[in-house]
Amino acid sequence: MSQVDISIGAVTAAGSRPVTTKTINPNSGTVLSTTMSTSSGPAISVSQAVPVVLAKAPTTGPDYGTISQAGEAQIGYTETYSSALTTDFVWQAYSTFCWGGGVPGVHWGYVYRCGYFGTQDWPDSPNGYFTRVNGYFISNAHWNSNAASGLFAWSNMNYSINTGFHDWQQGYADYCVFHYGCLSSYYPVVQMWEHANGEWDAAGS
């Protein structure tokens, strides 16, 4: 089974932006294929928020979170889309995950849904959602997909598929002028990677 990771570049002027689609082997993380395309739209800018930590998780190096043998954390990430000096919408997602079960000094344990250790249930990752939607320009804003989410083998000391979790939340919104003459559609994405040592990463589209 493969998973698809779609990255859409930000539009800084009216026109097109690059879209990269990667098919990934979730067991090894190997990129099986990469295709490039473009998506058209009006001028828009994207501001990526510093990852919002909803539970204690101080920054450590390039990742976030506290490295530990076991624990629980709730994390979140937001992106603000704006054009013509006004905010169009905010797209955000959050996830709660637990980790543990490793052998100190030997290997890390597993990422799992809190309360269900020993199973391969995904960590709790509710659908992404919109806030601060500008009703004059944005319509039909809703969660669209988490098709690229899933467990993967993160630790190089333990190749079990549930040593990491990739949470990919995509939204959908139409860019219109007072709900008439819609110009384009947007597919904002928030991604989070959760690791079996408590660290995590996050990024937007």
Structure description:
- The structure is a single chain.
- The protein has 205 residues and is mainly beta.
- It is built from no helices and 17 strands.
- Strands 4, 5, 8, 9, 10 and 11 form a six-stranded antiparallel β-sheet that branches.
- A hairpin with a 6-residue loop joins strand 2 and strand 3.
- Mean pLDDT is 73; it is low at 1-17 and 39-62.
The succession of helices and strands, N to C, reads EEEEEEEEEEEEEEEEE
Count the helices. How many?
Answer: 0
Structural class: mainly beta
Distance between the termini: 24 Å
Q: Tell me, rounded to a whole number, the average pLDDT.
A: 73
Q: Helices and strands in order, then pairings?
A:
Layout: E1 3-8, E2 15-24, E3 31-41, E4 45-48, E5 52-53, E6 59-60, E7 63-64, E8 71-83, E9 86-100, E10 110-112, E11 129-131, E12 138-145, E13 150-152, E14 164-177, E15 180-186, E16 189-195, E17 200-204
Antiparallel strand pairs: 1-2, 2-3, 4-8, 5-8, 6-7, 8-9, 9-10, 9-11, 12-14, 13-14, 14-15, 14-16, 16-17
